[in-house]
Amino acid sequence: MLVKEYYDGILLFEISNKRVWSRPVEEQEQLEAEWVKELKEKYPVEVNRKVLKSLKKYLN
User: Fold this and answer.
1) What are phi and psi of 53, to 5 degrees?
2) CA 25 to each of CA 14, 22, 32, 59: distance values in angstroms, whole numbers, following the listed order
3) Is 57 left (phi over 0), alpha (psi -120 to 50) or beta?
4) pTM of the model
C-alpha cells in the first residue's frame, strides 16, 4: 500500500508539473483553477455528513 501511495504521489506531481508548474508564472493560477475544475467534473466527490459525524465520536 505504501509503494502504491508513493507511486500515486509521484504521478500526481508529474501531471501537476506538466499541466501547471512548467508554464509561465502568470498563467499558473488560471491553469490550476481549470485543472481542478476538470477534476471535480470528472470525479465528483460527495461528503456523507452522517458517516463523518458517526466517525467523529471515535476520534475524541
Assistant:
1) -65, -40
2) 17, 9, 11, 41
3) alpha
4) 0.62
Question: Which grid coordinates belong to 56?
Answer: 467523529
Q: Give 21-53 as a DSSP string.
A: ITS-HHHHHHHHHHHHHHHHHHS-----HHHHH
What phi, psi does 17 have (nearest 5°)? -65, -45
Tell me the three cell numbers of residue 17: 508539473
Q: Which three cell numbers stand for residue 58?
A: 471515535
Question: Which tens digits make up the pLDDT trace of 6-41?
Answer: 999 999 999 999 999 999 999 999 999 999 999 999
Q: What angle do CA 16, 21, 27 make, to 5 degrees?
A: 115
Rg (CA), the chain: 17
